[in-house]
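Researcher: I'd like a candidate sequence for this fold, 153 residues long. If you have to choose between options at a position, lean toward the conservative one.
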């Protein structure tokens, strides 16, 4: 809800706001699960990964490029920005990291979202779809698993 209230505040403060919704961001220097799972697996650490919550991974470099493109277009609105593809679970993301990095898949342990007991509720699916890219003359961002190859490789 706080993200939604932030969007409302932005629109009410400046009618020409460009609001970008993204999620499951990974990249160099990141500290979240998606950004560090490759390092942890390379160190041989066992990883617990949620297998019942879905999202669309987004490479930070791809997101930054798209933010610049949207700023240059200067078209106010709400935009979803993610890498292309069907999306995945955290466990599926970790499996793909194992595949790309040739890590031991036996280091992965699937868990349910409720096992983490997070303080804030999370949706079962936070998948986003970029609907306006083509209409704005922007190419789809690369598939998330292709973007992951450049991150892991």
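Model: Candidate sequence:
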């Amino acid at each position: 809800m706080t993200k939604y209230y932030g969007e409302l505040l932005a629109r009410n403060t400046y009618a020409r706001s460009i609001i970008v919704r993204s999620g499951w961001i990974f990249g160099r220097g990141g500290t979240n699960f998606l950004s560090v799972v490759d390092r942890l697996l390379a160190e041989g650490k066992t990883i617990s990964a949620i297998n019942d919550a879905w999202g669309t991974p987004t490479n930070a470099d791809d997101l930054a490029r798209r933010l610049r493109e949207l700023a240059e277009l200067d078209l106010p609105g709400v935009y979803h920005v993610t890498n292309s593809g069907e999306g995945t679970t955290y466990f599926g993301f970790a499996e793909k990291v194992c595949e790309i990095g040739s890590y031991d898949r036996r280091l992965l342990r699937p868990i349910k979202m409720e096992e983490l007991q997070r303080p804030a509720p999370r949706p079962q699916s936070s998948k986003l779809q970029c609907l306006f890219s083509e209409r704005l003359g922007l190419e789809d961002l690369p598939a998330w698993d292709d973007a992951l190859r450049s991150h892991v490789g």
